[in-house]
Each structure stands twice: as structure tokens, then as C-alpha cells.
Specification:
The complex is a heterodimer of chains A (111) and B (115). Chain A has 111 residues and is an all-beta fold. Chain A contains no helices and 11 strands. In chain A, strands 2, 4, 5, 9, 10 and 11 form a 6-stranded mixed beta sheet that branches. In chain A, strands 1-3-8-7-6 form a 5-stranded antiparallel beta sheet, with no helix packed on it. In chain A, a hairpin with a 6-residue loop joins strand 4 and strand 5. Chain B has 115 residues and is mainly β. Chain B is 0% helix and 50% strand. In chain B, the strands form 2 sheets. In chain B, strands 2, 4, 5, 6, 9, 10 and 11 form a 7-stranded mixed beta sheet that branches. Chain B has a 4-stranded antiparallel beta sheet with strand order 1-3-8-7, with no helix packed on it. In chain B, a hairpin with a 5-residue loop joins strand 4 and strand 5. The termini of chain B are far apart. In chain B, 32% of the residues are buried. The chains are: A mainly beta (111), B mainly beta (115). Chains A and B meet through strand 4, strand 5 and strand 9 of A and strand 5, strand 9 and strand 10 of B.
Chain lengths: 111, 115
């Protein structure tokens, strides 16, 4: 099945640094979702975006729905050790129930 | 608490055996999904259901079966025809497309191992 192009695949950062990751697609989406998944657990929804250009924050997290509706980014400010995990995006093409998922960004925070 | 409950968390299957993973949601969502996640890979759709008594195959449905007799329940059976079933399985649900705020939520996952 189709997958989103998510980058970077992995990141090693120092505690306190800001993090940025993004997803791009060749298709237009009407919803972008960002999740965090810890090993052996289900993904937890971080931010949901429903309109092109929308910018939404959740604590230290900020995500934006790209104007072209083909991309989205997630920023994490002032990273802390518990930010460690896999972050992935999901997009929902118009007129379908079939979400398309990114392959994930593995984040490691060095104290 | 509202959410999606998967059981069991860990399941071991012998060769030639069918096993069923349970998924229950109390979010009053119409749509439910089953995904498979293999190490280092993205989520792959097995089956999805938009309404009760209706479901569609996803990208990797071979060797799996589902039923949707109740809105809140969407069990997945891994049959003996699935030759490589060892994986992490995720159940999810969402509101129906067309309703604003369409968002997919996941259960905590079930590990299936073939022994």
C-alpha cells in the first residue's frame, strides 16, 4: 500500500534542543495526524489537523497542515528524555477511510 | 474510561492453529480497523469496517478474517493460512468520513508469536 515519505528516519539530540520532522505525499489529504509510539505500546495521538494552513500546538509540540495539503511538519521544543520514542504521521485522503501512515521518525534524547 | 481495548496483550500460536484477537471500543465510533506492524516498518492495513455487518479487505488480508456483528466489537482471526503471523497487531477506530474531526485512535496492541 501507499506510504508517506517521513523524514528524518532517526534523530539523536541533546536534551533541551528543538526537533523538527515532516511528512510529504504525492496525494492531497484532508486530515493530518501525528502520533507517538513507545516500544510495545499502541500509538498515542498528539495532534490532529483538519484544514490547510492550520497550525496547532499541544504543550511543547506544534504541527502544521501544509498549504498544498500534501505535507505536514511536527516540531518539539526543548526536548526532554521522555520524548524518546517513534513519531509518525498519518494522512487521510479525501473520500476514503483508508489512512496512510508514515514509516516513523525514531527520536533519541541524550541527557 | 473511554477507549479501545485489545486482548490478549501477548498470544502464542502453534503451527496450524487459528487464533482470535479481541478488540472492543466504547467511543461510539462507526469505523474500525486492524493493522499489522512489523519491526522497523509502517502500519499495514489488514481489514476495515465502516458499519456493522460490513467490512473490506485491506492491503494484506490474506490469512486473516474478521467479523463486525456489533458496533463496539471487531475481532480478528489469524488463520493457519497466514504463514508469517508473528507481529504486533493494532486495532483502531474512527468516526465516519464526512464528520468534522475525523481522527483515528488506537488500542494498546497485541503481540502474536508463532511457536
Amino acid at each position: 500500500g501507499q506510504q508517506l515519505n517521513q523524514s528524518p528516519q532517526s534523530m539523536f539530540i541533546q536534551e533541551g534542543e528543538d526537533v523538527s520532522m515532516n511528512c510529504t505525499s504525492s496525494s492531497i489529504f484532508n486530515t493530518w495526524l501525528w502520533y507517538k509510539q513507545d516500544p510495545g505500546e499502541g500509538p498515542v495521538l498528539l495532534i490532529a489537523l483538519y484544514k490547510a494552513g492550520e497550525l496547532t500546538s499541544n504543550g511543547r509540540l506544534t504541527a502544521q497542515f501544509g498549504i498544498t495539503r500534501k505535507d505536514s511538519f511536527l516540531n518539539i521544543s526543548a526536548s526532554i528524555p521522555s520524548d524518546v520514542g517513534i513519531y509518525f504521521c498519518a494522512g487521510l485522503p479525501s473520500g476514503t477511510y483508508k489512512y496512510i501512515f508514515g514509516t516513523g521518525t525514531r527520536l533519541k534524547v541524550l541527557a | 474510561d473511554g477507549g479501545i481495548t485489545q486482548s490478549p496483550k501477548y498470544l502464542f500460536r502453534k503451527e496450524g492453529q487459528n487464533v482470535t484477537l479481541s478488540c472492543e471500543q466504547n467511543l461510539n465510533h462507526d469505523a474500525m480497523y486492524w493493522y499489522r506492524q512489523d519491526p522497523g516498518q509502517g502500519l499495514r492495513l489488514i481489514y476495515y469496517s465502516q458499519i456493522v455487518n460490513d467490512f473490506q479487505k485491506g492491503d494484506i488480508a490474506e490469512g486473516y478474517s474478521v467479523s463486525r456483528e456489533k458496533k463496539e466489537s471487531f475481532p480478528l482471526t489469524v488463520t493457519s493460512a497466514q504463514k508469517n503471523p508473528t507481529a504486533f497487531y493494532l486495532c483502531a477506530s474512527s468516526t465516519r468520513q464526512g464528520i468534522s474531526g475525523n481522527t483515528i485512535y488506537f488500542g494498546e496492541g497485541s503481540w502474536l508469536t508463532v511457536v
